[in-house]
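Key result, reporting period 2: structure in, sequence out.
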């Protein structure tokens, strides 16, 4: 299945079992960084969309950050996904990133 079709078919239910698990972020320079999926939750009210909108919150212990962009993320169960990540800023636990699916 082409990547865009696969992403369009994923729902909040697909990500719920992955909460608390590690994804690998592939940086453009070839380096990798571990990200933990901290939360997966619905966003907004219902819509006429094919799926209900949801958001994913990722965390990393790294002090550095990557700018908002599409990154390849790999997960043992979900495989490789190209996801648009937005940095939300750091807190006491590290850097936070959000991905919103509409």
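The corresponding designed sequence is given below.
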């Amino acid at each position: 299945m082409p990547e865009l079709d696969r992403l369009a078919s994923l729902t909040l239910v697909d990500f719920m079992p992955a909460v608390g698990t590690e994804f690998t972020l592939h940086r453009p320079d070839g380096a990798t960084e571990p990200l933990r999926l901290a939360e997966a939750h619905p966003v907004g009210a219902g819509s006429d969309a094919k799926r209900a909108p949801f958001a994913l919150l990722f965390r990393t212990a790294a002090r550095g950050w990557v700018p908002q962009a599409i990154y390849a993320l790999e997960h043992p169960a979900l495989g490789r996904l190209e996801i648009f990540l937005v940095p939300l800023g750091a807190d006491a636990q590290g850097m936070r990133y959000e991905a919103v699916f509409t």
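The longest helix spans residues 3-9. The chain has a mean pLDDT of 90. This case is discussed further under Risks and Mitigation.
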